[in-house]
Amino acid sequence: MKYALSCFLALAMAAPAAATSLRITVTNDAQENGFALTPVYTAFHNGDFDSYNPGEAATLGLEALAEVGNFAPIRDERIAATTDQGNPSAGAVFSSFTPDGGRRPLFGGESATVDVELTNVATQRYFSFLSMVIPTNDLFIANGDPFAFELFDAQGNFLGDREIKVTGAAIRDAGTEVNDRTFGVAFAAGQNGGEGAVENGVVTTNGYDELIRYVGLDTAGGFTIDPALKNTLLDFSADEFAVATIRIESVAPVPLPASSLMLLSAVGFAGFVARRKHKARTA
After folding, report:
1. How far apart are CA 195 and CA 179, in angstroms?
2. pTM beyond 0.85
3. Which residues lie below 8 Å from residue 101, measured CB to CB, with a gap of 6+?
4. Residue 24 pLDDT greater than 80, yes or no
5. In CA terms, which of 74, 97, 117, 226 is 20 to 30 Å from 89?
6. Distance between CA atoms of residues 10 and 265, nearest Å
7. What is the pLDDT of residue 17?
């Protein structure tokens, strides 16, 4: 009997306690002919990656993302900040695709879904996202504050499916390029960046107000937010205006937390004892 109890407890303690496959869906909630989002960069990390800090200068990685939608430099910054004992964090990119397989932005109403395999939730338990808002000089969306969303607890247990509503309050100004709306804004003007005046500022949280000022602006790249949408943006506060929705779902069996496994083990052990007693009475 003691041996049986030990087996049940050993199984409970040894069972894995983390989901390894997640399905992430990113939707641009803008109206048709509204703003677009560059391919959305997401990261799964150990909590040491802060993509920005309000009131501080943007990193070179954030500048590249906010001005031209280039996520490669900030991906490298994430890897450098979060690699732990040889177990790196993970990243994924969400976008629509061109006929030749290239990436293009997510336009109003479009969605993209990617299944992400997480190999070590101890170093991949937090979630962050970033994307440039088109057409602007250096506006971007990111987590509501520098801190990431927790997807797994410290024991590696998945905390459940969730839906993140990104609002206008999450639009940031990188402070790297002057928001000169009379100039062909960087991304829309040819994706080469550096065309606007250098601002040498800091990251601020007033991006929603700046976005409204871009409505109806003719850009060299031909991407213009429908002027008729200006009143729509003005009718909402930053907290009320829907920018994007991010859904995170488990697509693999999620082992139960250790406490639940031990409870099941106890139930199973009670059944085992009951069967032994029944056999003893009928022998």
Report:
1. 11
2. no
3. none
4. yes
5. 97
6. 10
7. 45
